[in-house]
Structures are given as structure tokens and as C-alpha cells.
Amino acid sequence: MHHRRTATRHLHTTAIAVFAALVGSPLAAQSKVLTPPRRDTTRVQVTRPSAPGTNTAAATPGAPAPAVIPQSPVLDSIREVVFRNLLDRDRAGFATLASAFCLSLSTSDFKHADAVTDRADPSEAMVRRLASPRAPARRASTCTFAPNASTPRSVTGRALLYSVGAIEMLSPERAEAAAGYNYDGYSAGGFTFSVERTDSAWVVKQWRMEWTAKPNGP
């Protein structure tokens, strides 16, 4: 009986010694440092591939967004007849002085002398139809508009820019189209054209000048 109590006491003492040794060992010290990892709050920016033909530069913060010009065969027909009237009738009055005739589309109503930044080129097919020996039209993106520029220009002389802007359909047969001109920064103006459809063709019925800026001299 005495022998059994002595053995039990010995086992108890041994267990205490082993526990103390473990507590003091490096392994035990490491097992106590089991703090969970901190939550990762880093935000990952996912860059998605751009659609074909997308201007990625326009998506840069601070960069102007590309112009979104409404498209339809009817609108293009109206634009073409307005362009033709501007070119053939020399509505700006600078055709004999211009060295290039540059065409653009816009969403502006050209009611005021505000800066227009939403220009886009008309189709190459439309430009070819409008071009003539008297007015060799070209897309506006191929022209440089910088008065008194010291750097080489894309065209010699001074370019005359014609823009057809917002179109309001008053009925299936009547519409009003805004237009503007800029003679290389020396003169500018805005128009409103009233057009009607007759025998499946659009014609200009009347036009009015909305504003004009006096040229500093050709």
C-alpha cells in the first residue's frame, strides 16, 4: 500500500517536471504566439480589357470623353445637305481665302460662342461626296487649327472649319440643324438651318445666323 502511494507521488512529480520543462521550452513559447493574421484591407484595382476601337486615353481621369454623335441614315442625309449648303454658298464668307475645308460633326446647338470640344469626323464617304475642286473638303482631324503657330502645320495657309451640330426632328419631313464655322481662330459663327424633305431628298428652306465673331483680319 505504501509502495503504491510512493509510485503515484513519483508519477505526479514527474508530470509536473515535464510540464514545467515544456512551458520553458522554445516550442511552447512559439505555440503561445498564435495571433490570427490581420484583415487585408488593400484594394485591388481590376483593369478590364477595352473593347476594340475604344479610346483608352479618354478613360484617363481628367481627359475629355470622346464625342458620342447620334447616327442614322436620316441624320446623315440632313448633315450632308447642310454641309453642301455651307460649302456651295460660302456661308462663312472665307471660301476664297481658305486653304483647306475641314468638316466635323458635333452635338453643339451653336447658339452661343462657346468652346466646342465634342467634335468628331464625318464618314470618309460623306467627305468624298462633298469634296469639289472649288472646296477640297477633308476630315477635321487632318487639320491643325492654331493661329500664328510656329510649329509645322498640317495644312498651309488658314483652314476653314465647318461643323454640323445638334439636329432636332420637328416631324418626319422637317428638322432644324445647328452648324458653325471657324476660320482658323480669326473668325467664328453659328447658324440654324431649317430643312425639309421633298421627294425623298432633304433641302435647305432657310437659315439664320445665330452669332458671329468679328475677324481680327484675314
Describe the protein's architecture and organization.
There is one protein chain. The protein has a domain at 73-145 and 156-213: Nuclear Transport Factor 2, Chain: A (Roll), CATH 3.10.450. 25% of the residues lie in helices and 26% in strands. It has four helices and six strands; from the N terminus they run αααβαβββββ. The relative contact order is 0.14. Residues 15-60 have low confidence and may be disordered.
Q: Which helices and strands appear, and what pairs or packs with what?
A:
Blueprint: H1 2-24, H2 26-32, H3 73-89, E1 100-105, H4 124-130, E2 137-139, E3 159-171, E4 174-183, E5 188-198, E6 201-213
Parallel strand pairs: 1-2, 1-3
Antiparallel strand pairs: 3-4, 4-5, 5-6
Question: What's the number of helices?
Answer: 4
Mean of pLDDT: 75
Determine the oligomeric state from the structure.
single chain
CATH topology of the domain at 73-145 and 156-213: Nuclear Transport Factor 2, Chain: A
Q: Helix/strand/pairing class, anyone?
A: alpha/beta
Major sheet strand order? 2-1-3-4-5-6
What is the percentage of strand-forming residues? Answer: 25-35%
Give a short account of the largest sheet: 6 strands, mixed
Number of β-strand runs: 6
First-residue to last-residue Cα separation: 128 Å
